[in-house]
Specification:
The complex is a heterodimer. By secondary structure, chain A is of the alpha/beta class. Chain A has a single domain, classed as TIM Barrel, CATH 3.20.20. Helices cover about 30% and strands about 30% of the residues of chain A. Chain A has nine helices and 14 strands. Chain A has helices at about 30-40, 65-70, 85-95, 110-120, 155-165, 185-190, 205-215, 225-230, 245-255, and strands at about 5-15, 15-20, 25-30, 45-50, 75-80, 100, 125-135, 135-140, 145-150, 165-170, 200, 220-225, 230, 235. Chain A has an eight-stranded parallel beta barrel, surrounded by five helices. Chain A has a two-stranded antiparallel ribbon with strand order 13-14. In chain A, a hairpin with a 4-residue loop joins β8 and β9. Chain A is globular. Chain A starts with a strand and ends with a helix. Chain B is α/β, with parallel strands linked by helices. Chain B has a single domain, classed as Rossmann fold. Chain B is built from six helices and 14 strands. In chain B, the strands form three sheets. An eight-stranded mixed sheet of chain B has the order 2-1-3-4-14-13-12-9. In chain B, a hairpin with a 4-residue loop joins β5 and β6. Chain B is globular. At the A-B interface, α4 of A face α1, β8, β10 and α6 of B.
Chain lengths: ~260, ~200
Amino acid sequence: MKLIRIIPLLLANKNFLLKGEAFKDHKYIGDVYNAVKIFSEKKAHEIILLDIYARKENRTIEFDLIKKIKKEIFIPLCVGGGFTKAEQVDMFIGEGVEKISINSKLHDDYKIIESIAKKFGSQSVVVSIDVRKINNDYIIYHENNQKKSNIYLETFIKDVQNAGAGEIILTSIDNEGKRKGYDLELYKKIQNIIEVPLIANGGAGNLNTIDDLLKNTCISSCAVGSSFVFFGDRKAVLINYPTSEQIDKIFKKYE
Amino acid sequence: MIALIDYGGGNTKSVANILERLQISYKITDNPEVIDKSDKIILPGVANFTYCMEQLINKKLDLVIKNEVLNKKKLFLGICSGMQLLGSFSEEGNTAGLNLISGRVRKFKIEDSKIVPHVGWNKINHNGDDLLKNIGNNSRFYFCHSFYFDPEDKSNIIINSKYGKNFCSGIKKNNIYGIQFHPEKSLDFGKILIHNFSQLS
């Protein structure tokens, strides 16, 4: 049995909604607050919102924006961007944010996962891992594809699970934004060591690409970026999400 | 007025937002005098069981809640960790709970479900209690948890769900309710459930 989740993943710089390809060429496509509100109205299963400029600018994702969003939406929200210390998380959780996504600083320090999990429970800590396929091997990159890590992907997944991560977002940098399907090999490679929910990200196109992932791997949750904000080959900006009927069909197929 | 207990267990604000939206009168509080004046109590929670119990005990809210619920018979709703806290004991940190409903809080076993926590929009089956009025069986609510409440007296179970195996996702004993899922994150059905609770008497 699989409990399916299909999750819009939005990239932001403050309240600017961005989208690029393979972690590059980010263009401004709208405003975060409105996009989130529309996804909530369309009954999205959850929303992941990541501020990809926060770390570089030595800040976290904007607290006031999140506060405003939390008043409007009644679906789970996961936020990330610039979190390097457990103390920074308190006010976001206090405002009702369900999950905090941690990425960059992790390679030096698993303590942030441990301390958030101990205080707020594992389910509130999401670890985001970005990988590139190089010579048939998956290499972890952090800080937005800037720094190469020397830790093996499998080792890292086991370590963050042991530290108390409640979920993992595993992104294929190569496939991100291309709408040609998920990197199935990546998820097949790690599916046997996964003990917490893993959200596949990078490459979602139409619903068939989601079905390919669900059918051919053990994964039950997937994030979708470009395909939920763009329409057609010319990439007109249009916030969209599968209809309730389409979602019901997917639920039934995998239950 | 509903007293929404603020004890540091997180998630209070999400529940406040939905009460606000439904125009139900509430106060976020850890003050025994305010709780005394309320006619219903909601105990939210997303945090670790041991941490939650420590916070309640430090603020002496465990005694306040017991008095309000057992002596004054106020209607009480525990959400997620707030439901689990009603139990006698939790495997999460091997900690004693409020013991308002006898039972143990257990971790999902790897034999039953390989992936823990249980996260997502799962179905509920219920016994038609007034808390679930206008909510059909198989309606979906948002769950996010690694532990579940296993009450000693199975007749306390009002809602069941399935994750690998069947588990209790809602309990009731007299004026005390607990639900494992999050109505505050469950769109329309969540709003109906919170409305139903506000209408109970």
